[in-house]
Amino acid sequence: MQYYSAQDLARSFRTVRNNTITIAEEIPEESYGFRAAPESRSVAETLAHIAAAPRWAKSMHTLLITHPDAATFRAGHEEVMKYQATLTTKAQILEALRAGGEEFASWLATLTDETLAERVYFPEGAQPPSKTRFEMLLSPKEHEMHHRAQLMVVERMLGLVPHLTREQQARMAAMEQRPASAQGA
Known about the structure:
Blueprint: H1 6-26, H2 43-52, H3 54-62, H4 70-85, H5 90-109, H6 113-117, E1 119-121, E2 130-132, H7 133-157, H8 163-177
Antiparallel strand pairs: 1-2
Helix pairs in contact: 1-5, 1-7, 2-4, 2-5, 2-7, 3-4
């Protein structure tokens, strides 16, 4: 049986985080105040949010909480917001992305199959009423990818071509340069 291990989770999180770091590096610091719309987060706020968000997941799952209440979620949110507010410069944000990302990924890699399979039960009325830790620990990566996609649109608005687009364009150009016999024809 094939399954997704803690090491797979850590590896995939590192890949996502490294792509986020590349975007953070490529957007000029003078554009960190840019907002795609008046009520949206700025580039800096979005990156600080990405850097801070996994802290709550690590905190909750390190404590192996199985029945979090509303106060637990509220405290986690407040902790993330407090840390996020300290990240105001490009240098601070990049350091938080690098160090925090590696800390989270290294911690993910230590989790056992039993820990990942454990169910966490939510306050009454939540849908679904429970999830495995594994499913919950996919969320920081999914959350980051969501915000990273926003940043890729912002890059376009700033006149930048996102690195993932440039890499795909280079692969396509290289394929077009190869003779048809080398392409599996």
